[in-house]
Write a structure and sequence with these properties.
The protein is an alpha+beta fold. It is built from 1 helix and 5 strands, in the order αβββββ.
Length: 158
């Protein structure tokens, strides 16, 4: 009997080739499944941790920005009550830790008065939706102009 290549067809050789071909496909399928499982076990947790870390960083940045805005407004109001106007908004940096619905820690804000004097405000306390309490001190050109236990009109809702 002639095969497709013009030679004599050997039924045993065809069966042997089919088994080898089937075994090769089976081995490839098993290997591919192993690689997929390995990816799921090793790569996906890494991606999840990286994604969670990025989300945490963004959330922390948003909380710091909200706290800075609240302090900026309150400090501007305190200085206005003392008869001091600023050139623009204060630039605040915070080091706050979230505890439930409040933030605790420190902040430092710097600005210039309309007279060109350096103004520095420091805050050490707690910020929440009910207010910003702690120690707030504002110094303009080495002179303390505000030393209070709270920042007026300051609140942060988390």
């Amino acid at each position: 009997m002639r095969g497709l290549r013009g030679g004599v067809h050997n039924p045993d050789e065809t069966v042997s080739n089919s088994v080898a071909s089937t075994c090769g496909v089976t081995i490839m399928i098993v290997y591919a499944a192993f690689v997929r499982r390995l990816l799921v076990v090793l790569v996906l947790p890494l991606l999840a941790v990286t994604g969670c870390s990025e989300i945490t960083d963004r959330l922390s940045g948003s909380i710091d920005a909200a706290a800075s805005r609240a302090l900026e407004k309150g400090i501007q109001d305190q200085l206005a009550q003392a008869g001091i106007e600023l050139q623009g908004k204060p630039d605040c940096a915070t080091d706050l830790t979230r505890s439930g619905t409040s933030l605790a820690g420190t902040a430092r804000c710097e600005a210039r008065t309309t007279d060109g004097h350096a103004a520095t405000a420091t805050f050490d306390g707690t910020m929440s939706s009910s207010g910003c309490t702690g120690t707030v001190t504002v110094v303009v050109e080495g002179r303390t102009v505000v030393n209070a236990a709270e920042v007026p009109d300051c609140s942060v809702s988390l």
